[in-house]
Design goal:
Oligomer: single chain
Shape: elongated
Order of helices and strands: HH
Number of strands: 0
């Protein structure tokens, strides 16, 4: 799956902020996945453990979407603040 996208400089900055927020949120989730997989014998990796990993990855995806929404909300608030403070009247 190719996820490479050409971004303008503003989008690149936003992507970096989302990435940094997501890395912080994902660290414990990734550790949990690693520990789950390490705790399973070879014959246990598929089956129930596979579904547990899928659920954890799904939760991580939800965190990614939330991080993007939070970043957009921050950017929108900053834009509104800037436009209000720039009002010459």
């Amino acid at each position: 799956m190719d996820t490479t996208t050409s971004l303008d400089p503003q989008q690149q900055e936003q992507a970096e902020r989302i990435y940094q927020a997501l890395m912080k949120a994902a660290a414990s989730d990734l550790r949990g996945i690693a520990e789950l997989l390490a705790s399973k014998a070879d014959h246990q990796v598929l089956g129930r453990a596979e579904f547990q990993v899928r659920d954890l990855v799904h939760a991580l995806g939800a965190k990614a979407i939330q991080a993007a929404l939070d970043e957009r909300k921050k950017g929108h608030s900053a834009l509104i603040s800037t436009s209000i403070s720039c009002d010459p009247t």
